[in-house]
Amino acid sequence: MQAENIIAQSESSQPVTRRQFCTDVVATSVVATIGLPNSSVRASKAKPFVKWAGGKGQLISQLEALFPSDLATRDNLTYVEPFVGGGAMVFHMLGKYRNIRRVVINDFNSDLVCTYSVIRDSPDALIEILSKFQTEYRECCSEEKRKEYYLQKRDVYNKRNATSVETAALFIFLNRTCFNGLYRVNSKGLYNVPFGKAVNPLICDEETLRADSELLQDVEIINGDFEGVYDHIKGKAFVYFDPPYRPLPKTPSFTAYSKDGFNDEQQKRLAEFCRKLDKDGHQWLLSNSDPANTDPDDKFFDEIYSGFDIQRVSASRMINSKVDGRGKITELAIRNYRG
């Protein structure tokens, strides 16, 4: 998960069912026992409903090759994602691994988690609002009018007084019409990504939303710090970590890597959490940036994950404000098992 999506973390991890992060209902936990959908056709159409920096769609086949060799044959598999982000991996897992019986997903972005919950619980209401947004946006006859419409919705989103369904609809609308699908907030917590100039974006992808809703039924969705998932893990689990990436050394983003974001201390805390899971007998796979892309002498991850298996996978930078910044790089895949 790239650093563009970093926002302040919540202090606790609480289960989200219906409308926790908006203004209407605070609900109780859903403990998931997955009943995978009968419709394999719909399951095959499930995919991320937002564009997300650092999304793993392009890397799934490489990462899956590093999964435990017996993962598909385990009984009553529990799958956990403490940094779910755009959801490429969890939708892949739910669509393919029929032995999954329990899933826990978490993210520290409360509006992203709200959107997951709304897609699971209220897809019809969400589709109705998004369809309206799509019609109104496409009726704007000029770039100036489309930008005006975008900024109006951004202002509504930033007022923070919408219902959960409205918040989810605004979240998806802004993602589909903003610059490069970024999610960024300023020091006041206000979303400030500029207009993306899209003429005819697919704002309401009904097919994807319904397929995602079907796969998310009974999934336990929580919001907060990654360590909060620990109390929700039962039995032996397979955990996939896709944290905010450590910026590459000797780059402008690394220079701007501040104490307020997911910095080196947070990366070290995550490594200690991984060691805790390893001690408990859980298996995990973790993605992060590869410092060797810009500084072969940077051994940060070799040191904090000493004793674990560190592999490299090939990736393309998918979101960057500079076109010449999009190219092939390697990323790290770290795991506490072999084969």
Write a compact overview of the structure shown.
This protein starts with 13 loop residues before the first strand and ends with a strand.
Question: Would you give an account of this structure?
Answer:
This protein is α/β, with parallel strands linked by helices and 339 residues long. The protein has two domains: 3-115 and 210-335, Rossmann fold (3-Layer(aba) Sandwich), CATH 3.40.50.150; 120-207, Adenine-specific Methyltransferase, domain 2 (Orthogonal Bundle). The protein has helices spanning 40-44, 60-64, 88-96, 110-121, 123-138, 143-158, 164-177, 206-216, 252-255, 264-280, 300-304, and strands spanning 14-16, 77-81, 100-107, 220-223, 237-241, 283-289, 309-316, 328-335. An eight-stranded mixed beta sheet has the order 1-4-3-2-5-6-8-7, with helices on both faces. Strand 2 (77-81), helix 3 and strand 3 (100-107) form a beta-alpha-beta unit. Helix 4 packs across helix 7 (164-177) and helix 4 packs across helix 8. The longest helix has 17 residues, at 264-280. The two termini are 25 Å apart. Residues 3-21, 23-33 and 318-323 have low confidence and may be disordered.
